[in-house]
């Protein structure tokens, strides 16, 4: 033991030992927590804030986006698509009512003069029926069973209403039937309206 230097009993590695914090860092943290008397709100915002969790930031972003969306919808009601007409605004629909829809559907499927009479009742009210829960089924049945000239007359009423029909919970089924059941030459107006 005479020629060898003594080793310390145990020493922590330098990276494991926390460096002592300078006094000014501690004072800055206290100042951030306790703003000085007379500070304005803008100066308080510039100070260091406690960390916000990722989920809290996400919630705040979603809230800001919802607020912006509500503001834009409230300030621009004229830019919305035209609302679908109510089914009660048609004279031929008023005569039949929802109870008459089953009779019209049966007449459409029977064929002959009954079908022609049912198609006559549908003419002039196709747009209103397209946006109605039971009426959309009538229009779909008429598209599927009627001849092409009668269908062309019915579809002429739907022109310029395709985009609002697609957005409708009932009208979108009518648009699907037009695309799937009719030849491309007859359903081409749907694509043209969607393209603008």
TrEMBL record:
<protein>
    <recommendedName>
        <fullName>PUM-HD domain-containing protein</fullName>
    </recommendedName>
</protein>
<dbReference type="Pfam" id="PF00806">
    <property type="entry name" value="PUF"/>
</dbReference>
<dbReference type="InterPro" id="IPR001313">
    <property type="entry name" value="Pumilio_RNA-bd_rpt"/>
</dbReference>
<feature type="region of interest" description="Disordered">
    <location>
        <begin position="37"/>
        <end position="95"/>
    </location>
</feature>
<dbReference type="InterPro" id="IPR016024">
    <property type="entry name" value="ARM-type_fold"/>
</dbReference>
<dbReference type="InterPro" id="IPR011989">
    <property type="entry name" value="ARM-like"/>
</dbReference>
<keyword id="KW-0677">Repeat</keyword>
<dbReference type="InterPro" id="IPR033133">
    <property type="entry name" value="PUM-HD"/>
</dbReference>
<dbReference type="GO" id="GO:0005737">
    <property type="term" value="C:cytoplasm"/>
</dbReference>
<dbReference type="GO" id="GO:0010608">
    <property type="term" value="P:post-transcriptional regulation of gene expression"/>
</dbReference>
<feature type="domain" description="PUM-HD">
    <location>
        <begin position="100"/>
        <end position="196"/>
    </location>
</feature>
<dbReference type="GO" id="GO:0003729">
    <property type="term" value="F:mRNA binding"/>
</dbReference>
<feature type="repeat" description="Pumilio">
    <location>
        <begin position="121"/>
        <end position="156"/>
    </location>
</feature>
């Amino acid at each position: 033991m005479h020629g060898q230097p003594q080793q310390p009993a145990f020493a922590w590695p330098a990276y494991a030992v926390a460096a002592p914090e300078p006094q000014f860092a501690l004072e800055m943290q206290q100042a951030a927590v306790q703003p000085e008397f007379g500070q304005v709100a803008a100066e308080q915002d510039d100070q260091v804030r406690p960390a916000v969790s990722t989920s809290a930031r996400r919630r705040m972003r979603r809230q800001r986006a919802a607020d912006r969306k509500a503001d834009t919808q409230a300030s621009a009601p004229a830019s919305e698509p035209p609302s679908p007409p109510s089914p009660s605004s048609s004279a031929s629909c008023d005569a039949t009512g929802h109870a008459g829809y089953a009779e019209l559907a049966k007449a459409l499927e029977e064929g002959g003069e009954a079908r022609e009479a049912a198609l006559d009742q549908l003419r002039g009210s196709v747009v209103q029926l397209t946006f109605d829960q039971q009426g959309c089924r009538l229009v779909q049945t008429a598209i599927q069973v009627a001849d092409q000239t009668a269908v062309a007359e019915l579809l002429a009423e739907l022109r310029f209403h395709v985009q609002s029909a697609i957005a409708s919970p009932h009208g979108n089924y009518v648009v699907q039937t037009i695309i799937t059941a009719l030849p491309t030459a007859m359903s081409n107006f749907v694509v043209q309206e969607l393209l603008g």
